[in-house]
Each structure stands twice: as structure tokens, then as C-alpha cells.
Amino acid sequence: MSEPVYSPGLEGIIAGETAISTITDGLRYRGYDAEQLAEQGTFEETAYVLLHGDLPTADELAEFRKRLAAAAVLPTEVMEFLRQIPRTAPLMDVMRSGASLLAHWDPDTADNSHAANLRKAERLLAQLPVVLAASSRLRRSKEPVASDPSLSLAGNLLWMLNRLPPTPQAVRAMDISLTLYAEHEFNASTFAARVIASTLSDLHSAVVGAIGALKGPLHGGANEQVMQVLEEIGSVENADTWVRDALAQKRRIMGFGHRVYKTGDPRARFLKPWCQQLAAESGHESLEQMAEVIERVVGEQKKLPPNLDWPSARLYHYLGLPVELYTPLFVVSRVSGWSAHVIEQLDNNRLIRPLGRYTGPGEKDFKPLAERGTPGTG
Ligand code: CMC
Q1: 96-131 per-position pLDDT tens digit
Q2: For 22, phi and psi rounded to 5 degrees?
């Protein structure tokens, strides 16, 4: 037998098969170009493609939207729990707890059949935006706002967050961002979800684990850090020096670099013009100029192109959203991709259990306690 392959961080390793998305020649969800879905479709159509395998007909979409609207309400007990969570708790932690709590009231939690998993996935897709909006309002000492079934998921999310009718531009920008965040093959959080599913655990547990994996700043948490960096830099004039100093100190510039896109993240390129347009409409042109300088210097110094989190953070800022919402918004979208992967894993399951390469000491003999002496006495 040949020596097992070892690659730190599983870099370059094919860790499983998937028919859900590919990044080989641009990003495609079940064959559909993600950019085309963002430009011509909606997030609901994207989620349908991911969960059900193909674009919906008009009737299928109407039924799907009806199911989502009906599920966009939390059990009273879950809402009560959300009220008890300390207002200082990071919203990603609240999302993780919210997904976990919802399992207790889901009638299908323990049913791992394909049909039950689809039902649970659709419910989580509808419920997690409500968890986010309600928790965000509670920490601002505002009462949660009921979901409006006449609105799209993106529009409803903005409505539930702000209790103000969102502008068509804001809904469109949110919808595009949710579509681009929806799925990305074997990224860390999706892989975590698949590992959990592979033990024949359940969909809610897999989503809870995925939220934990997404939270880290090397993954989804990067979009919040991007905004913190932009705030820290503060002005176009500071940008050049700030980035050079940060790179000289070996700091990572959040929103740049990618494990698999070494020549650039197509999602970031796609979102940039939308960012510029929103910046112009909301009077944030100087922030775009600052971003341009940072992009140039990171490109010159490290040859690192921006990833999706780079424009997403600015887009959310131009929509007037507080920074603490940015990574949870990623959850609201990516739950569609995670769920599709859990279902795919379970449809053809094999326990994910790789090997570790041992780097510890060689064999040692057990010494009875009385023979071990005391520290420092030899
Ligand atoms: N800023 C500065 N230097 C960087 C960065 C960065 N953002 N990313 C990579 N490098 C450097 C790294 O220090 C290393 O330099 P050297 O060879 O001198 O030691 C070199 O580039 C290669 O880095 P790496 O760590 O081997 O690359 P990786 O493939 O393991 O890392 C990454 C991918 C995303 C973890 C990394 O690029 C990073 O930390 N980026 C910042 C965090 C971020 O934006 N994450 C979002 C990822 S994409 C969307 C998502 O998942 O949310």
C-alpha cells in the first residue's frame, strides 16, 4: 500500500465528491453560473436550485415561497430564550444557539430521511433570518418585528431588522449578496457540516457546527474584520502607509487571499461595481477610494487579490447595517448550501474519518506513581 498523503490544512486534497457546486471554471451552483443567478435570478431561486437540484418552475417557486413564508415565525419558547440571552453576546453565538434551540421544536429533528431533511432545511432557511432580526432588535432595546409574507427573503430581512420599508436598491443588493454567499463547495464550514452529518447525527447539529466554523476570522468572520480595518484606517490619506506598515508587521489584511482562488475571487469582482454604485447613492465614495488604495497596495506588495468578504463588508455598510450583522448574514445565506451538502452526504454516506500523522514521543513505559518522584528532585 502506498504511503498516505499528508497535506497541512488538507490543501489541494479532494476530500469528497459533490454535485452541488464547482469552482473549476467560475462558480457554478448545480451547473448554473452564480453570477448569472445573482444578476437575473433571486436568492429564493438560488436556494431552490441548491436544495432541490434545479431551477423551479413558476408554480414550484410560488409554493416554495409560500412554505418559507409560513415557516418564518419562531416558536414562542425560542423567542423567549432569545430575550434571555445577554445583549453583549456576539450575534454569531446567538445564531449558533438559535439554530440549536430550533431543533427542540422541529417535528423532524431526529428524522434523517431525504424528505425530512429538505423540510428542516427550508424551515431553517426561513427561521434563521427571524432569529437574526429579532436578536439584533432586542439588543437595541427594540421589539422584534413580525415577518411580512408578501416580501422576498432579502426584503423581509431588511424589514424585520429596521421596521422600515426597504428601498428596491437595498433589497436588490441584499439579494445579490445572499446569492453569492449561498454555496462554495468544500469550504471549512461546509466540510464541518459534512463531517457531522457523516456520523449520522442530524441536520440541526450539522448547521450548529457549521456556524461555529464560519465564525472564525479566516472564514466568514473576515467580513466583520474588514469593516473594522476600514474604520481603523479612517481616511484615504492613511490607507497607503497603514497597509505597508501592517504588512511589514506580518499582519493579515482581512478580505484578501483565498485558499483556492489564487488569481482572484470572481464573486468579489462581480460585487465591486454594485458596491461602487451603492457608495455613490449613499455618499460613501471616499470609502470606495480608500478600498481602492488598499487593494492596490496589497496587490503590489503581496500579489493577493480580494475575496468576497472585501466588497460584502462595504456593501452592508452602505446599506446602513451594523458590523455585528455581517457574519450572521453569511449564515442566513449559507444555510442553503450547508443543508444541500448535509442531504448529499446522507444520500450516499461514508463516515468521514481521516488519519492523523503522529508527531509525539516514542514508546514509554508506565511508571507507578510512587516511582515518579517529585518535580525538581530528579
Ligand atoms: N494578508 C496578508 N498576507 C496574507 C493574507 C492576507 N489576507 N493571506 C495570505 N497571506 C500571506 C501569508 O501570510 C503567506 O505569506 P508568507 O508566504 O510570506 O508566509 C502567504 O500569503 C500564503 O498564505 P497562506 O496562509 O498559505 O494562504 P492560505 O491559502 O492558507 O490562506 C486565507 C487563505 C483565506 C486563510 C488567507 O488568505 C487569509 O488569512 N485571508 C484573510 C482572511 C480572509 O479574508 N478570509 C476570508 C476567506 S474567503 C471567504 C470566506 O470564507 O469567508
Answers
A1: 999 999 999 999 999 999 999 999 999 999 999 999
A2: -140, 150
341 is annotated as an active-site residue = no
Give the HSE-up count for residue 277: Cα atoms under 13 Å, Cβ half-sphere: 9
Q: Compute the distance between CA of residue 154 and CA of residue 34 in angstroms, rounded to an integer.
A: 17
Q: Please state the domain extents for the chain.
A: 16-167+184-216+328-347, 222-318
Question: In which band, very low, low, confident or very high, does the pLDDT at 262 lie, cut at 50, 70 and 90?
Answer: confident
CATH superfamily of 16-167+184-216+328-347: Citrate Synthase, domain 1 (1.10.580.10)
Which protein residue's CA is at the shortest distance from atom 2 of ligand 1? 252
**244 close to ligand 1 (CB < 6 Angstrom):** no
Asked whether 307 lines ligand 1 (CB < 6 A), one says: yes
CA-251 nearest atom, ligand 1:
2
CA end-to-end span of the chain: 45
Catalytic residue among 258, 284, 317, 341: 258
For the 222-318 domain, the top CATH level (class) is mainly alpha
pLDDT (mean) for 275-299: 96
Q: Is 93 a catalytic residue?
A: no
pLDDT band at 25 (very low <50, low <70, confident <90, very high): confident
